[in-house]
Amino acid sequence: MLDLHLYMLQRISALIMVPLVLVHIVVMIIAIQGGLSVAEILGRTQGSVFWFLFYGLFVLAVSVHGAIGLRVVVHEWGGLRGTWLTGFTWATFGLLGVMGARAVWAVTFA
Amino acid sequence: MSAVPRAHPLWLAYLLHRLSGVALTLFLPLHFWLLSQAISNADRMDRLLTLTELPLVKLAEFGLVFLLAVHAFGGLRLMAFERMHWPDHQKTLAASAVGGAVLISGMFLLRAL
Amino acid sequence: MGEPTRHQDSDIRVEVWRGTAEGGVWQGFLVPRHDSQTVLDLVTWIQHYADQTLSYRFACRVGMCGSCAMMVNGVPRWTCRTHVSRVVGDGALRIGPLRNLPVIKDLTTDMDPFFDKWTGAGGQHHPTATRDDTVVPVRPDDPARVAASAGIECINCAVCYAACDTVAGNPDYLGPAALQRAWTLVQDEKDGGRAEVLAAVSGKEGCFNCHSMGSCSQFCPVGLDPMRAIAGLKREALRGA
């Protein structure tokens, strides 16, 4: 159920996310010192083209990666097949993508 | 995991990779929802963020960072195994992935406390 | 040479799966324990002395044919090469049919799906020469030949197939044995069907489903490494893509 294309999409999205994840974890380690607040987060991200692109790319990659990942799990462990499986994959991609995009927008240019 | 007779180190690595991936994917919508409160309800978001002071929440965050790191390192091990001619020492690499994840999430926890 | 020593007070409680494709039960037997007993010896004793209706497969009894493969305490093994002393826990043992294959009766499974996938992955030689052509020497230390040779000793016992969780969750997945055979062909310079084999293994049910959990290599009684072979297939299949 994972053909060449889905396999490559999974690997490519993973590779894209490697540097993004590392930067994100480091930023989080720095950010949580002294507590978290909306002001502190927005102070870093609001109006920033860099963080918009950074997290925008992150959301796109994770939506693809998470959707394909869950696809494999619901097939192998849940027995989902055919149209239901395809529908589930697209729905996961859509949910992560839309919610992620809203979150990115919220902290950058909203 | 000796309760599962077929368990062996690389199988455990597979299970950890799968479960961490599922957990992270299920966590993401919550994470995204919280961040988008910055536009719709900044006050509520600030209130929710104060929850991050609770030790239990810090522990949960530590857990999430661990899962993210172990998933990423494990994934790198897999991709290196598949793409490059490094078939040996997979068990050592798998253990190192867990070790690296503990290190990074441990750093997070120390900074968080 | 006398009788093997019988351990009177440590008879073994053996639970054997009895049934068909429709379903079954675990049936208990008390089997006399002897020195140097294998799990196949237990099954044989049960069929000879306790219940003649028990169905099971075996042939060589000496670890060469792979016919006696079964699930022993949840792990696929050759029963003729499994000493009871190594696997009996608290004097009890569970013996069932190989996982991931349809059951015919009791401990015998239908191997057809396994062999269908073997050929489905392109697992037959594609000749490039006739008997009238010169024999082309193949250097045994050639890296491709070494890689091929590492996988050709497979005797199709299906232990790897039974061990694989990906096969369990994805019944159409070709599986470790079929894919390893395909790899040996891809590495064989005498085989003319390289492109054909790579196409066969890179479809929806092919090598890209493998999660490298390594149960195949962990449990292969011949010591082969299908996990490594499948990683090689992924590389080769992408190279051509």
Keywords:
heterotrimer; A: 110 residues; mainly alpha; 4 helices; 0% strand; B: 113 residues
Uncertain residue segments of chain A: none
The share of residues in helices of chain A is over 70%
Given helix and strand content, the structural type of chain B is mainly alpha
- Silhouette of chain A: elongated
Structural classification of chain A: mainly alpha
Terminal Cα span of chain A: 40 Å
Largest interface comes to: A-B, 36 and 36 residues
**Secondary-structure element series of chain A:** HHHH
Mean pLDDT of chain B: 87
N-to-C SSE string of chain B, H for helix and E for strand: HHHH
Strand percentage of chain A lies at under 5%
Give me the number of helical elements of chain B: 4
Fraction of helical residues of chain B? over 70%
User: How much of the sequence of chain B is in beta strands?
Assistant: under 5%
Largest sheet, strands/sense/barrel of chain A: none
For the biggest sheet of chain B, the summary is: none
Radius of gyration of chain B: 17 Å
| Shape descriptor of chain B | elongated
User: How far apart are the termini of chain B?
Assistant: 31 Å
Taking all Cα atoms into account, the compactness measure Rg of chain A is: 16 Å
Describe the structure.
The complex is a heterotrimer of chains A (110), B (113) and C (241). Chain A has 4 helices and no strands. Chain A has 110 residues and is mainly α. Chain A is elongated, with a radius of gyration of 16 Å. Chain B has 113 residues and is mainly α. Chain C is an alpha+beta fold. The radius of gyration of chain C is 21 Å and the shape is elongated. Classes of the chains: A mainly alpha (110), B mainly alpha (113), C alpha+beta (241). Chains B and C meet through helix 1 and helix 3 of B and helix 9 and helix 10 of C.
